[in-house]
Fold:
Amino acid sequence: MKYLSTRGEAAQRTFDDILLEGLSPDGGLYLPEHYPAFGLGDLKRLQRLSYPELAFEVLRPYLAPMEDATLRRLLEATYDAATFGSEAVVRLKPLDAHITLLGVSEGPTLAFKDMAMQLLGRLFEQALARTGQHLNILGATSGDTGSAAEYAMRGRRGIRVFMLSPFGKMSPFQTAQMYSLDDPNIHNIAVQDVFDTCQDMVKAVSADLAFKREHQIGTINSINWARVVAQVVYYFAGYLRAVDAVGAPVDVTVPSGNFGNILAAHVARRMGLPLRRLVLATNENNVLDEFFRTGVYRPRVPAETRQTSSPSMDISKASNFERYVFDMLGCDPARCRALFEDALVRDGQFDLSGDPAFARMQQEIVSGASNHAARVATIRAEWERSGQIIDPHTADGVKVARDKLEVGVPMLVVETALAAKFADIIVEATGQPPQGPEAMRDLALRAQRFVVMPSDVDALKAYITAHT
Ligand SMILES: *Cc1c(COP(=O)(O)O)cnc(C)c1O
Structure:
């Protein structure tokens, strides 16, 4: 498989080339040159496979020329009961006769990001061992991404993680989860400022190309293609386990932020999975809902981005969206550049409402937005009806899924996190704190290890230099 850039200038790359890279040098995002196709016969065969076996079939064409035996070994080691709580790895949890949660948050940090990140940790380690290189991952987190990355990279050879987080601004659960890690290759840096400043510090260090090269700095943001493709697997697993007869239509709702998770669903459909409609759910930060309703894509500035009770969906721009637009506009890099380089920079927005492709987009993806009141009401209603307590992001999904439900077509809603991570809103909705998994009961009691730092780029560079 060869990879190309949405902006067209990059040379053809292999999976290994793009694994450790973020953006393409031309500023675009990498995509495979084609999507491997699975017919109904293939899908029937896949229905009998275990999760790691299924992952092997779905991922093999993308990771070529990796040896089959190597890939099988990595997948067996990644997707096991010790890491994801059961041999099934992904669980279907019916809420009622129409809606079923696709439980992909059974991993170490109780959010779906573990599904891709755990594999990424092993892929990175494997690639670095082959070339004898080291990688220092520098990132900023407001909660979920940072912890998923740390749990995936802890103890891995050749890898160190420097993760910036806003001091005192994450949920107590998220804080305890990250700061209680005592692996020597994990560095928690608590910045005395807000998340946006943490992100600016990461950008400033990455912009110093000499420093970046000297210290082998890399990132693991959501535009990494390996993360997207690892998520494609669970749409196959969810669909194949949800239907009796392969070929039956299923709708899927995805609580969305950076458009990574729903892009994986779109790729699964491109590969032949019979998903009917994708339903995109946003919170109050409705950049994407606005696009699918009106055709206008208008990223927000940080000052317009609201802090909500589904914080992992608080985004100002959807960094994976460019891949979808490229795909839907006939894979035309000139068009993509005109939209994402020219129009967005010049006008702060672009409008596809007059393009025939937009009509197709609206057939494939429908959208809706939720808000705090709807989130609380949904958590309470689902709890009263089914006894299950769902997390606030999943609640945004369930809310929009109920609005878009059509009789006779089963609806899967991706459960993007577990309620235990977000106690405040659960108490507000149900009057009682959420129960965490057994293994995490003592989380708040564990010793915490982190350094506090002012928002000072030189201090950050000095810290990295002293620890690499
Ligand atoms: C990251 C995240 C999302 C958003 O996913 P995208 O791939 O960015 O669209 C939604 N819910 C939770 C809990 C998350 O951690």
Q: What stands out?
A: The chain has a mean pLDDT of 94. The domain at 91-110+226-430 is CATH 3.40.50.1100 (Rossmann fold). The CA atoms of residues 369 and 409 lie 21 Å apart. The longest strand covers residues 159-166.
